[in-house]
Automatic annotation (TrEMBL):
Name of this protein: Urease accessory protein UreE
Positions of the UreE urease accessory N-terminal domain: 9-74
UniProt keywords, alphabetically: Chaperone, Cytoplasm, Nickel, Plasmid
Annotated HAMAP family: UreE
Length: 151
């Protein structure tokens, strides 16, 4: 359990596969917002209907097992989302971007060659005003949705 904003939230980590485990793994792509919706029905890529009923407040992380059924494991995968891929030219610019994006209560997540933030009009305006290089891309986003920001 982790403590976020005064609430207790269960976090389902990526479990290690048991030694000698056999079977198929079906990756179920989920957006940052979807990974917080833990009481619902969804259809896996193979057509199987999954009924999620995790405790309220559970956060599904990429790699979390949703269900095991008949030798098949259904595992959370971060779905590609509309993001701004920000590529600061130096540490000072990176610090300005991180501070400004944080003031919008958005997650800024490092992802290889760029920092990612979920795309929306205020983010576009902010990055344009800062004059930082960025592109709009579809990439997996491992942060929280824009309405769930932790300082």
């Amino acid at each position: 359990m982790t403590r976020l904003s005064g609430l207790r939230r269960a976090v389902l980590p990526a479990p290690a596969a048991p030694a000698g485990a056999q079977g198929r793994v079906i990756h179920v792509p989920m957006t940052a917002a979807d990974r917080r919706r833990v009481r619902r029905r969804l259809t896996a890529p193979d057509g199987a209907e999954l009924r999620l009923a995790f405790p309220t407040g559970t956060v599904l992380l990429p790699g979390s097992v949703l269900e095991r059924r008949g030798g098949v494991s259904y595992v959370v995968e971060a779905a590609p989302e509309d993001v701004a891929a920000v590529r600061p030219r130096g540490m000072a610019e990176a610090a300005r971007v991180a501070h400004a994006v944080g003031n919008l209560h958005r997650d800024l997540v490092e992802d290889g060659d760029a920092f990612l933030v979920l795309w929306d009009a205020p983010v576009e305006l902010l990055l344009t005003r800062l004059g930082v290089p960025f592109t709009r891309e579809d990439r997996p986003f491992h942060g929280r949705p824009s309405w769930e920001h932790e300082p």
